[in-house]
Amino acid sequence: MHTLRNNRTLHQTEVVDIIDVTPRMRRITIVGESLPLLGIGLPGQWMKVFVPTPGDEPPAGRAYTIRQFDHAAGQIAFDVVLHGDDGPGSRWAGRARRGDRLDVGGPRAGHMIDRSAASYILAGDATALPAIAAILEALPDGCQAAAFLEVADKAEERYLTPRPDQTITWLHSGTFVPGTTGLIERAVKAASLETEDCQVWIAGESSMMRSIRAHLLLDRRIIHPAIESAGYWKLGTADHRERD
Ligand SMILES: Cc1cc2nc3c(=O)[nH]c(=O)nc-3n(C[C@H](O)[C@H](O)[C@H](O)COP(=O)(O)OP(=O)(O)OC[C@H]3O[C@@H](n4cnc5c(N)ncnc54)[C@H](O)[C@@H]3O)c2cc1C
Counting Cβ atoms within 10 Å, is residue 113 exposed (0-12), middle (13-18) or buried (19+)? Predict the structure, then answer.
């Protein structure tokens, strides 16, 4: 079933399952009559989820990556970082209950894997884990991948199990917010990387993403078309929007 907001098609859905994948990552699964009609197949595709706001304000749209899509059942799972009550998305995820109703728009974008790439470099904070996990799962067998991932602590690492040809460098932000410590930037700069014919995907906190992208372009001389990057959020800014 559809409604329209700003000329965009919205899908009416209901929450059917909620599990904590890690202490700070909550998987929320929704079902909707119109979801089986959606064209979902690329890693990193995302939807605008309209979450409740306090008071009489209309629902707020927030971007979340499609982590799982069950076409037959018409179900989509989002993995949401629980960063507290300072934003409606995180607040909603912290309080979600089975039976909650919400509208979603999309799907949008998604990452085209270059199957001829010799190697892959991925970098991101906790918000990028759903997309990076999907990209790692979709990479051709034998394609070397190096991923630099910042999460709060060791308990968050169980989110993702890499294949033997995939190397994960985990960074722990501790009491700071993943993506804001400079740890990923330093790890990428210090790493020995295969940059010949590589493909790069970076997402997470905006300043972190920009710093890594600049390093790969200017210092490592990776060509611009080989790098896809997105600022998924920005420290101190609500509903930050930016792509590449
Ligand atoms: C294409 C795309 C895909 C995304 N996929 C995912 C996903 O799968 N899972 C996911 O969790 N996020 C994902 N994000 C990021 C998510 O949309 C943002 O983190 C968003 O700001 C969360 O909304 P909010 O209402 O919780 O906070 P907002 O209202 O946007 O912000 C309120 C405050 O919280 C801060 N803030 C926002 N996000 C974080 C954070 N992660 N940690 C600490 N502080 C934060 C802001 O700086 C601001 O000060 C994605 C973003 C994009 C653009």
Answer: middle
